[in-house]
Specification:
This protein has 328 residues and is of the alpha/beta class. Helices cover 55% and strands 9% of the residues. It has twelve helices and seven strands. Strand 5, helix 9 and strand 6 form a beta-alpha-beta unit.
């Protein structure tokens, strides 16, 4: 997925800093070497003069003397290298050094993104997602069905807790696999600690690894951010565009914030705007469906019910289970 402009600019500013730093290092090396070996400056000036003459000859298509100019430049280059080595410097001491030799710190090889750009892209997306550290532990590889009972069933579905979790896991994997081909939204609900947030993190991990823009907010953080955007003025106001335009927005623990008319209206605005833009959203909540509708209005619940896959997770609080198992 393409980066948003502000994300692209962030990466390119880093490349500009690298280039400026490397130019400064080269200038320092030149100043040091010219002072210690004055002949080096003379050689570089002679090479520059000969190279200009060679360029003019090529432009005017003059064949005579071109080979002599090439030989003269080659001899001067050999003398330059010999002087550096005899004075204890590496042969390439006066050349520009690059953090990435492949793209020479431009980010591109021809018109294609360099591997270093792709790496920077993923690192930036991880950092801006608010999830960088936690996703090292919470991903599909670490999802365990052992915390779900294989005997206790859900009266409304007839499925065991583990069967329910397997269905939710399968749906999450399919959500990732089809992400670029179909517009989907997920709504996870159920009691505290049954794996709703963990499953959201699993999805975020895989999408971030494939360079998608994922933003994660607890419900309190999201509405605090939106309030700052709505009530701040001028340059101090946070930009809420990424909220509406990121590839995936995760709103976690909806219902734990202090709910008021502003929160309800902002939730509807956020959900509706992202549906209109066909940008995927994952919502998790501990609220029962009837309580959710009463809290955020029937209009908001209707938009969710008609545009989200709704999945209830059941079971005992996994966090408490882990405490009894010694944190495993």
């Amino acid at each position: 997925m393409p980066l948003q402009n502000y994300q692209y600019d962030t990466i390119m500013r880093e490349y500009n800093r690298r280039q400026a730093r490397n130019r400064r290092i080269q200038e320092e090396h030149l100043a040091e070497a010219y002072e210690k070996i004055p002949r080096l400056r003379e050689i570089d000036e002679e090479v520059a003069t000969l190279s200009a003459r060679k360029a003019r000859a090529l432009i005017s298509r003059q064949e005579v003397g071109i080979e002599d100019l090439r030989n003269d430049i080659a001899l001067l280059s050999q003398e330059r290298t010999a002087l550096l080595l005899s004075s204890g410097y590496p042969a390439d001491y006066l050349e520009m050094s690059y953090t990435c030799p492949l793209c020479q710190d431009t980010g591109y090889i021809g018109s294609q993104k360099c591997s270093c750009f792709k790496k920077a892209e993923i690192e930036l997306l991880y950092t801006q997602s608010n999830l960088k550290e936690i996703l090292e532990k919470e991903n599909f590889d670490h999802f365990s069905f052992d915390f779900y009972s294989d005997t206790i069933t859900n009266d409304s579905t007839g499925l065991t807790e583990r069967e329910t979790a397997r269905r939710a896991y399968k749906m999450a994997k399919e959500f990732v696999a089809d992400f670029d081909n179909s517009f989907q939204n997920l709504f996870f609900y159920g009691d505290t600690g049954v794996g709703k947030t963990f499953l959201s993190h699993c999805i975020a991990h895989d999408l971030l690894d494939s360079a998608h823009c994922v933003l994660y907010f607890s419900s309190f953080e999201l509405f605090d951010f939106l309030a700052g955007s709505a009530f701040s003025r001028g340059s101090d106001a946070p930009d809420d565009e990424p909220i509406f335009d990121c590839d995936l927005l995760i709103i976690d623990d909806l219902g734990t914030e202090l709910t008021n008319s502003f929160v309800s209206s902002q939730l509807f605005l956020c959900i509706n705007e992202r549906i209109m833009r066909k940008k995927s959203t994952i919502i998790s909540t501990n609220l029962k469906l009837e309580d959710f509708s009463a809290t955020y209005s029937e209009r908001t619940f209707s938009r969710i019910a008609s545009n989200y896959q709704m999945t209830k997770l059941v079971g005992k609080d996994i966090r408490i289970q882990k405490i009894f198992l010694g944190g495993k």
